[in-house]
Amino acid sequence: MDMDIQKLKDKDLSRQDCIELFENDDLFFDTLKAANELRKEISGNVVTYIINANVNFTNVCSLNCGFCAFRTASDSPNAYFMTPKQVGQRALEARLAGAMEICLQGGIRKDVDTHLQIEMVKNIHEATAPYGDISIHGFSPMEIYAAAENAGLDLKTAVIMLKEAGLNTIPGTAAEILVDDVRKTLCPGKIKADEWEKVITTIHKAGIQTTSTIMFGHIENNEDRTDHLLRLKRIQEKTGGFTEFIPLTYLHENTPLFKKGLVKSGASGLDDLRMYAVPRLLFKDVLPNIQVSWVKLGAKFCQVGLSAGANDFGGTLMEDTISKAAGAKYGTNMPRQRIEDVIRQIGRTPQLRTTTYTHVEETQNKSAVQA
Predict the structure, then answer these.
(1) How far apart are the C-alpha atoms of 336 and 325, rounded to whole Å?
(2) Is residue 141 part of a domain?
(3) Structural domains in the chain (count)
(4) Quick one: 261 exposed, middle or buried, by C-beta within 10 A (0-12, 13-18, 19+)?
(5) Cα distances (angstroms) measured from residue 286 to each of 112, 197, 234, 245, 332
(6) What is the pLDDT of residues 139-154, one digit of tens each?
(7) Which domain holds residue 149?
(8) pTM score, two decimals?
């Protein structure tokens, strides 16, 4: 590959180009520099973030994914399953604490269908409406697929019903690695890569935007990572429905894959940085927003990620029990002031945003909470 940085920024990267950028240590710093320069051209000096909260409405799941340390057996004393009213109450607590978005996800269960999901959505809006309402970022593509099946509904009908009930956006999770040979070991109970793509494109065509993700650093190789990214790019070129790309480094310590000896550790720090830089160079402004994950990597490493192609800091979260269960060491809540301080430390300008990346003025969110 010609590693002239200007050409690298401008080039439409091939599959082989991406693999080489992931693998060739001699290209590491040039890759980061090119990605950071491209980020400046696309996003300028601004680093966006959101005030949000996670609600995991149940920790019981019928799947047995090798990367998950959150799942609990139904007969465990630690098992829980929130009612729609309880979900609404949690959302209200988050709203009163200043959250603009609630990220709502749970396990795959036979007793969770589209109708129950709709009840959760309605309860959240009913509880938070007197306080300016809250944006619901809820249910992974796998959850929507399984819930529609449980309700006896076709996928498109289920998605439209959720949208009409008030589901605003959807996390692009359950993607893990969109390569079936990897998924057979990593998450054998989840839908195949083509099915995931079908669900996500159905969601986009219904007018609901989603995030996009990758979970890396386990049993996949650089070819698998590249094929995953190329699939996301193809979907985005077709639908334009992704708001952002979120690399999720695999936290291994408490997971079944690690306990079985199938993986020895997660991704290296170099690989974490490449997973900001290479997608930036591949996606360019087709998918302009790339998010760092402070829960998984910590604030200081995220500052480096923001200088390697990323432009978004994510959210306050207020709770991230899934990452915590897997072994995250950086807490489950980062106050807004701390986020802004972290961003300013590297000479960048913090900017509050909505889920769909509309910039928010300070007074707008305060008045909503006080309403």
Answers:
(1) 23
(2) yes
(3) 1
(4) exposed
(5) 35, 18, 10, 11, 31
(6) 999 999 999 999 999 9
(7) 13-370
(8) 0.89
Q: 3 lies in a domain?
A: no
- Using the 8-state DSSP alphabet, how is residue 205 labeled? H
Tokens (6 digits) for 12:
């439409």
- Domain-located, residue 225: yes
> CA-to-CA distance for 306 and 331, rounded, in angstroms?
20
Please state, in angstroms and rounded to a whole number, the distance separating the CA atoms of residues 350 and 19.
33
- DSSP structural state of residue 242: E
Residue that the structure tokens 């498109």 belong to: 156
* Residue 319 burial class via C-beta count within 10 angstroms: exposed 0-12, middle 13-18, buried 19 and up: middle
Is the pLDDT score of 255 beyond 70? no
Give pLDDT tens digits for 176-190. 899 999 988 877 878
Q: Comparing 365 with 15, which gets the higher pLDDT? A: 15
Q: Is residue 334 part of a domain?
A: yes
Q: How far apart are CA 6 and CA 34, in angstroms?
A: 7
Contact of 277 with 308, CB cutoff 8 Å: yes
